[in-house]
């Protein structure tokens, strides 16, 4: 049992709080994708819910806790998915939710946050600048700042994915997890290392946003000055020390992938699995594409963590084009 | 309780036979699609499984029954989905599966049937010609002919979708069901009319393959000479009398939609729900598009029955193009 901020009993209890629409998501073998990648591939699909990402698992815990405390408002910084999910969970419980996002975030994600009735504040700059602005707003107004990966509920919510993966003795040997702030990686990783320690936990991040991966390899917080990746959902520059500590205890490896591999991964998920995914959700496939020898003959699970992608971007990147077409 | 060939106890028992990977599929509100259509829309997603359609529910029952009887082979005619599902269920139980398909069936579907180790026989002509050829092969070889919609297991398998829709008191008032041979419509319809009779059951078929819809309206079997639709999964010319009898007892309406509406429906499902679907799965959305006044303000469920589509076709039809692009 790794000694992290996470706790199995709390994660199990979380299942009773989270709206069932986010739980017990599909887990299935995709033979066509496996043939194309030279290994067995199972997909854990986190996109078939009202907010099209796994983030609802965590925001349900956050919003439920706030509601029990009689709080009426929350603010978060978000590249889109956390904001949409917090807006959804907050609306159900009568919370006023303010989401601070980069003006560069996908328009489709921002529109959906507005449609929930959440207040949307846009900042010029990247995710970390949105995080600073959200923090100062929360201080000024005295409302709860929801911080992805730092707030334990966001990790515990993601960790319920791990419970579902280990419900039966795993027939897979590897789980590939998109790495951004680290909520999903530490949450799922904690459960896997507790209940199925033989399964290899591999985190995947873009070369264009490598801060947490570099930090994991150097065993200390490494920040970067900028990010440059289409995978907006995992593009942070300032790893959170407590999250890095946990990640060091539950991840077996952390790898970086090229943008071109992410696009090819998106295209393969469309072609072989019929799935439209956002770039972050293709990181696992990208990792296999860049190191096929490592994964040959193995049975891996890749968590398809979100499908919130601007379709114009998707087509501009070439993700929507069948590989067989010119 | 409608007096059909179906029986609730048998449908409930079917859940214990069907591989869990096909059961308890996602059911979730898609607010973006609802806003675009002027009503509340929930999606029942039948594509997140190893064969990317709902057909595995039925073929699990068929193959399990054959296996219990000590049979070693089965043959079916299929536009693709039944064949893939029967091949999958048969392989698990050591059955030799032969699938007879039209040479016009999508190449991607045919490749996946071959990859399962099933024997694939192609005929020049449409689905009904494949059906005749499969029947004669089964007679000659003395093996079980699996007939979609006629064989009660195919209806009972689909009917388990109905159990999942009615697990809690429905908050929807309408279910839109793609109508082809009638297995899904009679199966789901039977459960709805038994457990939630106030819910309107509306079947949707393309104008280009209208035989069952015309039969339902005329209350007698009406056949057509040909079919002309991109919705290959529902393109039959010869309704089965016993299935029509059941459909008359469980469907509240049966409507026909244009090809252009099917393509727009596919595009909307991509744009607003992030789902790649095959044409049959867009019939429900197409029905709303053609009669928005009828559905305004209602809460409908549309069953996304399959995502097996040739991506070249998908793009050629224009289904992959965002509506906002030129």
TrEMBL record, chains A, B:
Matching Pfam families: PALP
Lineage, highest ranks first: Bacteria, Bacillati, Actinomycetota, Actinomycetes, Streptosporangiales
Domain of life: Bacteria
InterPro entries: Ser/Thr_Dehydratase, TrpB-like_PALP, TrpB-like_PALP_sf
Gene Ontology annotations of biological process type: isoleucine biosynthetic process; L-serine catabolic process; L-threonine catabolic process
Keywords: Lyase, Pyridoxal phosphate
Protein name stated in the entry: Pyridoxal-phosphate dependent enzyme
Domain Tryptophan synthase beta chain-like PALP: 22-306
A GO MF label: L-serine ammonia-lyase activity
Native source organism of the sequence: Actinomadura darangshiensis
Cofactor dependency: pyridoxal 5'-phosphate
């Amino acid at each position: 049992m790794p000694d992290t901020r996470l706790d199995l009993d709390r994660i199990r209890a979380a299942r009773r709080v989270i709206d069932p629409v986010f739980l017990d998501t599909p887990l299935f073998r995709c033979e066509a994708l496996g043939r194309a990648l030279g290994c067995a591939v199972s997909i854990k699909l986190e996109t078939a819910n009202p907010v099209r990402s796994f983030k609802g698992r965590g925001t349900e815990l956050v919003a439920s806790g706030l509601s029990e405390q009689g709080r009426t408002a929350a603010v978060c910084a978000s590249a889109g998915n956390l904001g949409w999910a917090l807006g959804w969970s907050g609306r159900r419980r009568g919370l006023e939710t303010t989401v601070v996002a980069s003006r560069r975030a996908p328009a489709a994600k921002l529109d959906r946050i507005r449609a929930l009735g959440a207040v949307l504040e846009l900042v010029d700059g990247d995710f970390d600048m949105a995080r600073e602005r959200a923090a100062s707003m929360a201080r000024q107004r005295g409302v709860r700042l929801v911080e992805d990966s730092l707030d334990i509920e966001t990790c515990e919510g993601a960790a319920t994915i791990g419970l579902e993966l280990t419900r039966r003795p795993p027939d897979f040997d590897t789980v590939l997890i998109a790495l951004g702030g680290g909520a999903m990686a530490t949450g799922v990783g904690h459960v896997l290392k507790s209940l199925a320690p033989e399964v290899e936990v591999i985190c995947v991040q873009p070369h264009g946003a490598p801060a947490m991966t570099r930090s994991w390899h150097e065993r200390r917080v490494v920040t970067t000055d900028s990010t440059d990746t289409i995978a907006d959902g995992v593009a942070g520059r300032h790893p959170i020390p407590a999250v890095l500590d946990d990640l060091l205890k539950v991840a077996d490896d952390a790898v970086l992938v090229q943008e071109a591999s992410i696009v090819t991964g998106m295209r393969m998920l469309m072609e072989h699995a019929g799935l439209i995914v956002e770039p972050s959700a293709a990181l696992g496939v990208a990792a296999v594409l860049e190191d096929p020898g490592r994964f040959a003959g193995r049975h891996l699970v890749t968590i398809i963590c979100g499908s919130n992608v601007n379709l114009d971007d998707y087509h501009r990147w070439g993700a929507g084009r069948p590989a067989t077409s010119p």
